[in-house]
Amino acid sequence: MYKYQRTLRDKIHLEGIGLHTGYSVQLTLVPAPPDSGIRFRRTDLKNFEIEAIRTHVAKVSYATTLMKKGVMISTVEHLLSTLYGLGIDNLYLDINSMEVPILDGSSGRFIEEILQIGIVEQEALRKYIVIHKPIEVRHDNKVAGVYPDRVPKATYIIDFEHSAIGYQKIEIELTADSYCRDIAMARTFGFVSDVEYLKSLGLIRGGSLENAVVLDSTGIVNNHLRFPNEFVRHKLLDLLGDISLIGKPIIGHLYAERAGHAIHTALVDQIARQKDHYHICTVPDLEPALQNAV
């Protein structure tokens, strides 16, 4: 766990297309001062700022969309997951369109660029949410929760009827190394049977075999999987992006089963509301807080 807040050593420029809009987009990651948090700036709208926090969550269907005063940023989860996974606290995300570029459908390119440019510590202490009582959200057979633990951990379970997916589970201790090794390269996925419906909703205009794992009734349409359980790894990637909207890193055990963006963000809301279920503290004050967490 990092004692001090962190940002990038220098700017990073990226270009791509939006998964759902199909629009070309330019994105620049810009170092930000301590206690800035993660902030999108719409460069096409006079640098209008949208903080990456739960109060700006507007839509959670097929992607997580933020909105402030009618201005939107969509499909934010992969980029936010990367920043959460690498422990980056303060960053301006300058973007000239309404959707974060999908790149190859994973966090891989973000990771590659960030590790190349480097991460630097700042003078301010990093604040953690230390869970000491369970917080849960349940919708039918869908569950998302966070439970006391001495270190950041995560468990995710999915169960699809499709023969290429089925039941998959991942359990992992969350560190920057484990994120890069076990989560970042897992791509988003979708089904051919859903394509026409999603297009009728104005979605996946930028979707292709280059930026998603696509399945039909018989199996995987495009190339091979990067992991045998790539599907559940990507769901965990999404969870970490959504959970980052609480605004601080969590020390506890995240758990999700048959979940998605809606229940992920519902958990974020519950964490924000149930303030008596956790402490907020810095590393020097961590040990007393952890004693209450187990």
CATH T-level topology of the largest domain:
lpxc deacetylase, domain 1
Query: For this structure, what is the CATH homologous superfamily of the largest domain?
Result: lpxc deacetylase, domain 2
Overall pLDDT score = 94
- Counted by DSSP, the helix tally is 7
- First-residue to last-residue Cα separation: 18 Å
CATH class of the largest domain: Alpha Beta
Domain count: the total is: 2
Indicate the radius of gyration in whole angstroms: 18 Å
The percent of residues in helical segments reads: 10-25%
Going by helix content, strand content and strand pairing, the class is alpha+beta
Report what the structure shows.
By secondary structure, the protein is of the alpha+beta class. It has two domains: 4-125, 2-Layer Sandwich (Ribosomal Protein S5, domain 2); 127-291, lpxc deacetylase, domain 1, CATH 3.30.1700. The protein has seven helices and 20 strands. Strands 2-3-9-4-5 form a five-stranded mixed β-sheet, with helices on one face. It is globular, with a radius of gyration of 18 Å. The model has no long low-confidence stretch (mean pLDDT 94).
